[in-house]
Amino acid sequence: MDYLEFLKTKIEIAPESGFAVDPGAVNKALKPHQRDAVVWALKGGRRALFESFGLGKTVQEIEFCHLAADKQGGRALIVLPLGVKQEFTRDAVELLGYEKPEYCRTMEEVYASDSEIVLTNYERVRDGDIRPDYFAATSLDEASVLRSFGSKTYQTFLDKFKGVPYKLVATATPSPNRYKELIHYAGYLEVMDTGQALTRFFQRDSTKANHLTLYPNMEDEFWLWVSSWALFITKPSDLDPGYSDDGYDLPPLEVRWHEIPVHYGDATEKDGQMTLFTDAAAGLKQAAEVKRNSIDVRVEKMKEIVEDSPGDHFVLWHDQEAERHAIKKALPETVDIYGSQDYDTREKRVIDFSEGRIRLFATKKSLSGSGCNFQKHCHREIFLGIDYEFNDFIQAVHRCYRFLQEAPVIIDIIYMENERQIKETLLRKWKDHNHMVEKMIEIVKKYGLSSAGKEQGLKRKMGVKAVRIEGNHYTAVHDDCVEEVRRMESNSIGLIHTSIPFGNHYEYSANYNDFGHNQNTERFFEQMDYLTPELLRVLEPGRVAAIHVKDRVLFGNATGTGMPTIEPFHALCIEHYMKHGFQYFGMITVVTDVVRENNQTYRLGWTEQCKDGSKMGVGCPEYVLLFRKLPSDRSNAYADDPVKKSKEEYTRAQWQIDAHGYWRSSGDRLVSKEELKEISVDNLQAVYRQYSREHVYSYEEHVALAEALDENGKLPATFMVVAPGSWNDLEVWDDINRMRTLNTTQSRRRQHMHVCPLQLDIVERIINRYSNEGDRVLDPFGGLMTVPMTAVKMNRYGYGIELNEDYFRDGVGYLKEAEDERDTPTLFDFM
């Protein structure tokens, strides 16, 4: 296929694996918006319904399961929280006219039952009693239980439901606090691998593992992709302006925040120091301490609120058992439920409260926050405390605040003065949730339920209008590098130096031309197959392509191995470039900081090493792979235009120092091991590297020194200060300044940060070793134009190509600065 055809294959919308249903075949009891949702979900086969509370997800789930089971000639399973099975039973029989769904605890009960639809609880599936693969169709009611990626429930469900032909998830609050959690549903529905989706749409924090945020320039594409497998609606008219919204108006909502002041001076730190108060936002331990020490004052406030409205029914939300006991003591008429209670007792009490036979109901969000409908007899809720779990909070709010609620809803939230930061976080997440819903509704209204419209929207991300900016000593091009290199003259580049995208590890733009925008490593190299032959063509005979790469950490939760493994990306690159005619002739190893790497990946942790050292690898260095285009004359293999250095200008002494990579300043002296302990952490890295190079290495001595530093509080957890130095700097470079990149300037300028910058030290050495002054130095993945900018400063001609508009704009600025510095005459030039 040609290049454009290849790019078109990247367009990702959720595949349709279901069947078309005549809307007239859907149960007539369903309202128009419910019917449309069921038809859409069945055509997709594996879909999600994210509908506001009260829009009728129950009947949609039942109808989806009924029609899918009938089509497959099998049975269906609906998994639901405790306390809501009676609603499914009632709707199936009284509203839809179907046989009563049977509630089953084990597969033996399933086999003994002959009902088409089986009901069960999440616990029954998670703990192994129910086998989802037996069923032709499944639905997860209140599927937000899957929101915690890596949790036992999510991992178990991911495996147990794999391959089920028809899968539906239904919830009103799809993980609003972090957009990336939406893709956990995509993983469950087998729409896209979770690890792939994380890489596709989210940028990682280089200082902290698992801290990912949605690329700003990927937001539209992300929501288009989500809308291809998930349906968001808040009212019927969201689907069709002609649908009536009668009965779907939410009542007024009043949220009352009750801040209780703290008593200052009571808190004590572990070292005995007094503090004004314990900060609940400092960590889980501190938050629990605040909760534990404030139960009485919070319950007293709750009692006051309840007694002020003697005619109202209340849900009393709490988190700790101690809080439940305190509530019962202060308000004896309260009926409560708790985790160790018999399931049937819990269910009866939930039903009694929902039907108005109980006035005060104490429960936890984890028990009654999902699935329960309390709006018929209750419009008051009190939260005895707050935490960061917004999903649980908003679910609990909507037990009463939902359609068919006839009274204004009042939510009382009690919190301590030192929990203000938690309150602010909850309010921010609430705002994020509203934004997410608005964004999805906007897409539904714009494109409807058809995938064709969404695919057309995604296609608009392909291609770029080329921009070329030329200076006296550089050329910068905003375009796809494949297209630009194809236009370049053969044998016109003296050196190619670049840091290629690391497979599908990062995406640098929202464009389908982006090399990082590929499903996997194999697809990445398919796109590279269009570029690499062109790079060989434009390189002068005998000259070098220096390719910066790094092996990739593959996480166990994505590979299924349960442990981090390494993809040998540098080896795959060697194979790729050799396949296209480049001659491989060496590799430079650049040592990285293992402590920083662990903060990024959590795969080399000290704690895990102590638990089981057999799963522990080592840090991943970076590599500069050296390739050469064969010269015309292979008798001596000199380049057609050799890279020459004068021995007068490039002396043996300079060569030795450059090869070793360590330059001493005049007046310095060697330092002893004892003196190392007294060196400040700021200087310790450089001093120890010098010490390590100039002494016979002892592993035992190295460990002893690190332990002594740790005892003195000089062994940071964020970077490595006693990394071993290298004696062979031709092969291993251990003194690269990892903070000296254009990102340092970018950070000061508050510009968009490049996600994987190339260090200036590496660029300077490569250009010096493998090019002559006046040569054209090309970087096809220019980024912030580090390579061409350095080339300009070193009296070469810089040539950079970049697809990302922000990087290109900033990179051109750096190039202009470098050129102005080079061309501006000094006073001595006039003398």
From TrEMBL:
<dbReference type="GO" id="GO:0032259">
    <property type="term" value="P:methylation"/>
</dbReference>
<dbReference type="InterPro" id="IPR050496">
    <property type="entry name" value="SNF2_RAD54_helicase_repair"/>
</dbReference>
<dbReference type="InterPro" id="IPR038718">
    <property type="entry name" value="SNF2-like_sf"/>
</dbReference>
<keyword id="KW-0489">Methyltransferase</keyword>
<keyword id="KW-0808">Transferase</keyword>
<dbReference type="InterPro" id="IPR029063">
    <property type="entry name" value="SAM-dependent_MTases_sf"/>
</dbReference>
<dbReference type="GO" id="GO:0008170">
    <property type="term" value="F:N-methyltransferase activity"/>
</dbReference>
<dbReference type="GO" id="GO:0003677">
    <property type="term" value="F:DNA binding"/>
</dbReference>
<keyword id="KW-0680">Restriction system</keyword>
<dbReference type="GO" id="GO:0009307">
    <property type="term" value="P:DNA restriction-modification system"/>
</dbReference>
<dbReference type="InterPro" id="IPR001091">
    <property type="entry name" value="RM_Methyltransferase"/>
</dbReference>
<dbReference type="InterPro" id="IPR014001">
    <property type="entry name" value="Helicase_ATP-bd"/>
</dbReference>
<protein>
    <submittedName>
        <fullName>DNA methylase N-4</fullName>
    </submittedName>
</protein>
<dbReference type="InterPro" id="IPR027417">
    <property type="entry name" value="P-loop_NTPase"/>
</dbReference>
<dbReference type="InterPro" id="IPR002941">
    <property type="entry name" value="DNA_methylase_N4/N6"/>
</dbReference>
<dbReference type="Pfam" id="PF01555">
    <property type="entry name" value="N6_N4_Mtase"/>
</dbReference>
<feature type="domain" description="Helicase ATP-binding">
    <location>
        <begin position="38"/>
        <end position="192"/>
    </location>
</feature>
